[in-house]
Every structure is written in C-alpha cells, then in structure tokens.
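User: Okay, second chain of the day. Same drill as before: sequence in, structure tokens out.
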Amino acid sequence: MPKLLLATRNPAKVREYSFLFQDAPFQLTTLAEEGINMEVSEIGPTLEENARLKASAYAIDDRFIALADDSGLEVDALGGKPGSLSARYGGKDASDKEKITLLLSRLQGVPWERRSAHFRCVIAIASVSKIVGLCEGECHGVITFEPKGDQGFGYDPVFYLPELGKTMAELSIEEKNRVSHRGKTARKALQILEGMWRELSQ
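Assistant: Same drill. Structure tokens below.
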C-alpha cells in the first residue's frame, strides 16, 4: 500500500498536517524522511495551479500518494493581494516578520471596518503524477493593526477571528485546526483519501 507523502518542506505545515491526518488510512511520510531533495517552483498564477504542480511532481512512483497544498491570504482592501504570492510577499527570502511588516505598511490608514480578509487553502492529491483529488477551504477574519500571539506561522499573528476574539496565532493547534482554512480543506481531503483506500483495498 502506498504511503501518503506530505509534499512540503515547511516544518510548521508538517506539524499541522501530521495532526490533521493522524486518522488517515495511509502511513504518513515527508520529503525529508524519504530523502527527496527535488524542489518544485510555485510558478502558477493561482493557488490551484501551484497545488497541482507540487502534487504531480512529487507523485513520482507508486510508492507514494502525494498531498500538496498552496494557501494564501487575500485582503479585500488590497484587491485580494497578496493571494498566490503570500509566501513570497516582500521577496522569496523574506521572513514571516518581514512579510507582516510589509502587509501592515500597505494597510496603514485603513480603518478596522475595511480590514476584512480571508485565508484560502487548496489541497491537491496525486497518484503517479495524476491528480485524483482537489479541494479547498476558507477562513474569514480581519487584519489587526499589530501582531499578537506566538503560535502558528505566516500571517497568523495579524489574522483576527471575531467569533473567537483572538488572532490565529493565539489559538492552540486543536483550536486552529477546527476553524482554519487548512483544517477545513484537510477534512475534505481526508474523505478523498478514505475513498482511495477503499478502492485500493478491493
């Protein structure tokens, strides 16, 4: 039976997905564990395209079912930016802190009621370079005026969830996975994986 390859080098994503897919019917593995050094450039113009690119590239043989995602922050006052460029906002090597600083500078003077935003996540699942599943999820919130919280990663410290009264970075991993874009998408992906398992087991 093939392993489920988490096609990301981001250790924070690996931790989240390891938690989200702990009940998946496949053995989880990572690029590092499998010694896969190939890099896949996120050159697509959309989250969907980038997720497809990565999943197809890492589904290199029948040892693996590859699961890859792309996610982005879309800020209404910025016309949906940074969007698919979220991970490279401010430059390829910009730190999370630098990305947040740039984002807040672009929103300087924008009042609270116009700082609405949402996270989007798209997951692609591929088997031997063939896309067999694609799903997405969203999480809506407001961009704060300054970072708060030290959990999570990326833009979590400035993404405020009105219904919880906290930023994403103030949530435990269990709380975050219940409400986040990645958690919502992962639950849809789990249904696809369970269907694949049933087919492979017949």
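Strands lie at 3-6, 28-30, 64-75, 116-127, 130-143, 159-161, 166-167.

User: Thanks, on to the next one.
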